Amino acid sequence: NKAVKELTSRGIQAQTIDSFLLELQQLDQRSMATDFSKTVFVLDEASMVSNRKMLEVLQAAHQRNFCRLIP
Questions:
Q1: How far apart are CA 31 and CA 46, in angstroms?
Q2: Is residue 17 within 8 Å of 49, Cβ to Cβ?
Q3: Angle (deg, nearest 10), helices 51-63 and 17-29
């Protein structure tokens, strides 16, 4: 993804929504507890995300106690 490459080249951790959700599923399957309480999740171009995918992101952030979600 072009946007991910651009952000990571500038030192900003970035990934696609699908890869993010897959990573969370894999952590859950391995029963790996991860502390997201100090994590700020920034969703770039939120208006381009489908309602279903946005719901998945919101549920994931809520279930894992993210500090903030910024669409």
A1: 29
A2: yes
A3: 40
Number of other residues whose CB lies within 10 A of the CB of residue 16: 11
Could you tell me if residue 65 is left (phi over 0), alpha (psi between -120 and 50 degrees) or otherwise beta? left
- What is the per-residue pLDDT across 9-36, written as a single tens digit (0 to 9) for each? 999 989 999 999 999 999 889 988 789 9
Residue 1 pLDDT > 90: no
| Residue 52, both tokens | 């279903």
Q: Is 56 exposed, middle or buried (0-12, 13-18, 19+ CB in 10 A)?
A: middle
Six-digit token string for 56: 């998945």
- Whole-model pTM: value is 0.79
Q: Which residues contact 13 (CB under 8 A, 6 or more apart)?
A: 7
